Amino acid sequence: GAGVSQTPSNKVTEKGKYVELRCDPISGHTALYWYRQSLGQGPEFLIYFQGTGAADDSGLPNDRFFAVRPEGSVSTLKIQRTERGDSAVYLCASSAPSQQFFGPGTRLTVL
Amino acid sequence: RKEVEQDPGPFNVPEGATVAFNCTYSNSASQSFFWYRQDCRKEPKLLMSVYSSGNEDGRFTAQLNRASQYISLLIRDSKLSDSATYLCAVNEGGGFKTIFGAGTRLFVKA
Q1: Cβ–Cβ of B95/A56 closer than 8 Å?
Q2: Which residues are CB-neighbours of A45 under 8 A, at least 6 positions away?
Q3: What is the spatial distance between Cα B82 and Cα B20, in angstroms, rounded to a whole number?
Q4: Which residues of chain A have a pLDDT value below 70?
Q5: Which of A52, A62, B23, B64 has the smallest set of CB atoms within 10 Å of its CB?
Q6: Is residue B94 very low, low, confident or very high in pLDDT (cuts 50, 70, 90)?
């Protein structure tokens, strides 16, 4: 389909491991967002890209989290030294110009 | 105080009822406002943007009160299919950072 896709849909890892989460935005959308959502909460803003650059990364919780979008399309969220508190659904959204379309999310479980 | 606050509910209403949700925001410089719907274990989907003049889409009406810093969503003639979590979202002034509320759960029963 033509929507936002995210892979993997589920990821189980062990505490201390490194994970990468991928987002394929809608073709032509220049803006891309990452959020994480815990049970019973709304999406929590992590980072926003306009093109290749991170326009606002103020939501990244600490330096274990990093995101890239090298060619202005696909983005990867990278989490180092995962902790149990990182367990959540990680959502990606793309927009052009203002309406955000969300992907189905990656459910990350850190054991 | 949270940046965007919503009553978590749940709101339990019969089919055909009218139900209203409010959402308050703390940043007076906020520029854009939205209501999203999220079904269980699914991603949020945009329901409506909220404009200063208010806007209506079928059974749904959204309003913005800048002076009191809240937005509202009114659902008329509730349907079983309206059962979901309703998230309000606010874009901070001048940028695209979007802050979501925790959501209000609605259950519509036959």
Answers
A1: yes
A2: A33, A35, A58, A59, B97, B98, B99, B100
A3: 13
A4: 1
A5: A62
A6: low
